[in-house]
Amino acid sequence: MKADAGPDAMFVAGGTDLYPNMKRRHQEPRTVISLMGIAELRRADAAGIGACVTLTDVADRPSGRPAVVANAARLVSTPLLRNMGTLGGNLCLDTRCNYYNQSYEWRKAIDFCMKKDGAICWVAPSSPRCWAVNSSDLAPVMVAIGAEYRLVGPQGERVVPAGRFYHNDGINYLTKQPDEILAEVRLPAPDGWDAVYHKLRRRGSFDFPVLGVAAWVKWDGKKVAEARIVLGGVASWPQEVPEAAAALRGMPLGAETIAAAAEAAYRPSKPMDNTDFDLSWRKQMTRVYVTRALQEIQQRHATGRIEG
Fold first, then answer.
1. 3-state secondary structure of 296
2. What pLDDT is recorded for position 201?
3. 3-class DSSP state of 308
4. Strand order in 211-220's β-sheet?
5. Are 218 and 224 in contact (CB under 8 A)?
6. What average pLDDT does the chain have?
7. Rounded to whole angstroms, what are the CA distances from 294 to 69, 213, 219, 234?
8. E strand or H helix at 172
9. 3-class state of residue 4 by DSSP
10. CB of 64 within 8 A of CB of 46?
């Protein structure tokens, strides 16, 4: 169907991102192809989740599935929208910006922006690129835990690590080809690791993250064998911070180690003035939220409540 419809067609699952964008004329497909009737895309077990599984079903964690995935899904939007929205939709969520996510008339009044119909980035007018941010709650989690995505298209299937699925570009933000479908998310087996996700937003529900922190730690006794810290809501992709992981590796997860990792995550966190709250305060919150996430992992490890 996609091949017949050509480049003016788009896939849709729950539609909670695409349909509002269509109303604002961000996307204007001539043909919309629903994926919700494909039974394979709605299957789920402990090892993998089909892309058309609703966020409500993802949040209802079955035995063996990482709790951090269910917890992050539970933080997306509202119950009504989680009943419609899908895992694949959240992972492929369009990047967002205060100058882009407005009505057609509002955007026309400022002469549009380079993400749609214009030639300038109103966040950074001298910039040659778009700075719209990745606002997915589940994407940073998938990058942190090392999930893999199975993509299906006319050329066959391929599996890519979650971290290689995203570009740091507000317009070309996915490595997925337009005629490919994100079919399945493959989750890593529990193996002595733990992960958490913390979200900063103005209200307790409905709002997109202005900062998301996904922290993953693999244990070797009382020391950290490996770690990943991934930030959401501050860049056009889920931003992994290797320096923060390096501060944890080979060390016990104590106050000094956590402080060093939080400081390392704070330095490359460079939010732009294109989402909610003051950008300098949001940058300060990076240190606070990384600290809180690692403290939660520390406390769970001390009480024996890790993932695997």
1. helix
2. 97
3. coil
4. 193-200, 211-220, 223-232, 239-240
5. yes
6. 96
7. 17, 10, 13, 19
8. none
9. helix
10. yes
